[in-house]
Design goal:
Layout: H1 3-20, H2 27-40, H3 47-56
Helix pairs in contact: 1-2, 2-3
């Protein structure tokens, strides 16, 4: 995977975090959804990384 492909996938994950970051969903469900989405894009995120993404983009 090249840098440009990684950047595109990271942008997709960020957009997904914006979509999932809803007050109606618990933080645990948000983390699970984001981690699965990233996994589908072949990017492995740790729980800490997912937590930082969710709290960084409220």
């Amino acid at each position: 995977m090249g840098i440009s492909e990684f950047t595109e996938k990271l942008n997709l994950i960020t957009l997904f975090v914006y979509t999932v970051n809803d007050d109606l969903l618990s933080t645990q469900i948000q983390k699970h959804l984001v981690k699965n989405y990233a996994s589908n894009l072949r990017i492995n995120l740790t729980d800490n990384m997912v937590g930082e993404l969710i709290h960084k983009y409220p």
